[in-house]
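Run log // design_07
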């Protein structure tokens, strides 16, 4: 898994506000309203315990502080434990956390200790970025393209199939595509310029994954992928609206999904 860097987390709230404006302009809803539409929940007075985890590549500076800023932004009562790992877990429980947020290099979870619900960042990120793309108010059809069918893209594609969209998908990994065809019924997308999409979910760790032939003149690209897969000049030439943010949108979905 590509790990976040401290630089990714700089100016997080500016990036959030910028993306919230784009999302509102293109879907008529803000991030909190979209989370509510997906999960049917609203934050109450949950206490969120954020535990720094030292295993693997260790602490990412600003990661826990960013999570705290996110809980604050969405009106929740967050706190970072003084100690990491198991000692931090004990501290979160004795500090009366309702929900635990913690991440190692492989998985990032939200666990609600009151109702037992547990969520992963990759699934919630796929679902919310897919939902954002699918709510594009200028969409010309119910056809949507998913680029990258890994952990995030697969969850997004599944969400879109369940919502009744016709999902085209591409991934160089043949095994993944076979599974997605069989289990989700996605249509393999051949990038030959004959079909262009007004809604695109991009979920790869690579740049330049979006070519001119994939996108309609007016379109919304929704991508958690780091770095961004949309080349700047294509975005400019085609007037693409771009939703792309490194942490907050996915974490908002995690929190709403376990409330
Ligand atoms: P993954 O490694 O499970 O899947 C990535 C998939 O993209 C692979 O199946 C790969 O074959 C495919 N791929 C690579 N190049 C491609 C191309 N040119 N065209 C089509 N498919 C291509 O990764 P995962 O966990 O799904 O994450 C995807 C991206 O999302 C990463 O950059 C990750 O860092 C980012 N991410 C961002 C979050 C956020 O909040 N912004 C949250 C979680 C992940
Ligand atoms: O970097 C990642 C994920 C995050 C997805 C959200 N965009 N790509 N995971 C590693 C997090 C490690 C956190 C660290 N253990 C800490 O500071 O607690």
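design_07 sequence
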């Amino acid at each position: 898994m590509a790990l976040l860097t401290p630089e990714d987390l700089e100016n997080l709230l500016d990036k959030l506000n910028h993306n919230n404006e784009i999302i509102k302009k293109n879907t008529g809803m803000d991030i909190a309203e979209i989370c509510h539409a997906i999960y049917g929940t609203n934050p109450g007075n949950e206490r969120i315990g954020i535990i720094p985890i030292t295993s693997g590549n260790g602490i990412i500076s600003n990661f826990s502080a960013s999570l705290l800023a996110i809980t604050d932004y969405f009106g929740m009562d967050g706190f970072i434990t003084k100690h990491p790992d198991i000692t931090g877990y004990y501290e979160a429980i004795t500090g009366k956390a309702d929900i635990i947020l913690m991440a190692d290099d492989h998985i990032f979870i939200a666990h609600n200790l009151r109702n037992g619900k547990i969520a992963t960042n990759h699934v919630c990120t796929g679902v919310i970025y897919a939902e954002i793309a699918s709510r594009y108010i200028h969409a010309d059809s119910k056809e949507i393209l998913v680029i990258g069918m890994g952990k995030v893209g697969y969850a997004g594609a599944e969400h879109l199939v369940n919502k009744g969209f016709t999902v085209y998908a591409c991934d160089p990994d043949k095994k993944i595509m076979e599974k997605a065809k069989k289990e989700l019924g996605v249509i393999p997308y051949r990038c030959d310029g004959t079909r262009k999409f007004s809604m695109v979910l991009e979920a790869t760790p690579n740049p330049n994954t979006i070519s001119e032939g994939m996108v309609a003149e007016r379109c919304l690209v929704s991508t958690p992928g780091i770095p961004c897969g949309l080349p700047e000049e294509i975005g400019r030439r085609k007037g693409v609206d771009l939703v792309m943010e490194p942490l907050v949108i996915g974490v908002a979905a995690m929190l709403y999904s376990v409330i």
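Residues 47 and 77 are 5 Å apart (CA to CA).
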